Amino acid sequence: MDATELRKKFAESYGYEEGVRTFFAPGRVNFIGEHTDYNGGYVLPAALTVGTWAAVSTRDDGVYRFCSTNFGTRLECSVHELVYKKEDDWANYPKGVLSELIQFAGPDKSKRYLGADILYHGNIPNGVGLSSSASIELVTGLALSELAGFDIPMIELVKLAQRAENNFVGVNCGIMDQFAVGMGKEGQALALKCDTLAYRYIPVKSYGYKIVITNTNKRRELADSKYNERRSECEQGVELIKKVMPHVQALGDLDLEDWERVRHVIKDHVISRRVEHVITENERVLAAVKVLEANNLTEFGALMIASHESLRDLYEVTGIELDTIFEEASKIDGCIGTCMTGAGFGGCTVSLVKEEAVADFKETVAENYTRKTGLVPAFYICEIGGGAKEMQEVEKQSQL
Ligand code: GLA
Fold first, then answer.
1. Over the stretch 260-307, which tens digit does the pLDDT of each residue have?
2. CA distance 288 to 304
3. Dihedrals phi, psi of 193, to nearest 5 degrees
4. Under 8 Å between Cβ of 92 and 169
């Protein structure tokens, strides 16, 4: 679907197409640096070429209408009734973003949010750890702020989208997803320090390797409560460490040497394992950036494998499905790196697979995974795309 087709869909839903503008925000994959963002640590994600499209037109009666080609829900709400409602389902994301945009504008300027009709279309599988929600948030933030005549810097939209998810939707996520979706660049990964938001683009050259995302197709149960449990375990770790290192604000402030000096203060084995994951994962991201810059994909892949093992053994967020895909993928000749991506507890892995081995990878991993778990996986061969933007007329939608 290109911009013209998106406009046609908009016309089918709303009965007009004059004044329609079209926007896009991608999904993301994270190569390494899992559960480090809310600890003020490092991450290395990239934007994908799949994502969410929005066709948008302004109104002047203070009413916002949301609909999607992917879901049945159609929602209409006034700018004065922006409250979370469970039954509004995915539409809570745009509502949350709009609510944050209005606060960001302040009492006078917020009057420029006059209403809009929006049609969404997406091709990111939902709820599998590829940031479909951050993608809806950023496409909405960009479209509605542009329509209201504001030119909000992308980094502010990124922070605002995270606030919408934390405060309105009630998911306590870190900044990684929104950052990658907003700030991504074609062919580049983003090395980001999540407390200062210092970042750098790192070119990812393929050298005949493909980025293969494997979806476990396992429903992510209890993911939110387990995610919050991990966050609180890390906070407990910080409190204990502060007793001997009062300057420490977050686990991202510690390197391996610090950890060796303070690990004795954490007697609880669970907390100790969680902290050890975060600190070693941070070191792995830094090492991954170095080897990627040196074009050493083999070493990069080895770090991905070490990351998965740490997420499995120390942080305990993988589970049988992700671990089975990981094990089967590691056995394939031509797969030089593989690990879970996103929050875990189901969802996807990301692997680097030699182009000529991709067919064997898909067939063998699928066969062995299904035999062991009874589930059928899905595979997506991905490209690294750019961040959220207004679309040009001729741009084509990429397919998973
Ligand atoms: C989810 C969250 C991110 C991050 C990852 C784990 O994707 O939205 O903020 O915490 O989990 O790395």
1. 999 999 999 999 999 999 999 999 999 999 999 999 999 999 999 999
2. 8
3. -100, 120
4. yes
Domain boundaries, the chain: 3-35+46-179, 209-382
Mean pLDDT rounded to a whole number for the chain: 95
Residue 3 confidence (pLDDT): 86
Confirm if 58 and 121 have CB atoms less than 8 A apart.
Answer: no
Query: What is the CATH code of the structural domain delimited by 3-35+46-179?
Result: 3.30.230.10
As a CATH number, domain 209-382 is 3.30.70.890
pLDDT in tens, 343-375: 999 999 999 999 999 999 999 999 999 999 999
Phi, psi (degrees; rounded to nearest 5) at 148: -80, 0
| Predicted TM-score (pTM) of this structure | 0.96
Q: Which of 37, 158, 166, 181 to mutate to test the pocket of ligand 1 (most atoms within 8 A of CB)?
A: 37
Q: Ligand 1: residues whose CB is within 6 Å? A: 34-35, 37-38, 173-174, 176-177, 342-343
Could you tell which of 93, 159, 165, 177 is best to mutate to test the pocket of ligand 1, judged by most ligand atoms within 8 Å of the CB? Answer: 177
Looking at the DSSP assignment, which residues form a beta bridge with residue 58?
A: 116
Distance 127 CA to ligand 1 centre (A): 12
Residue 352 · residue 337 · CB < 8 Å = yes
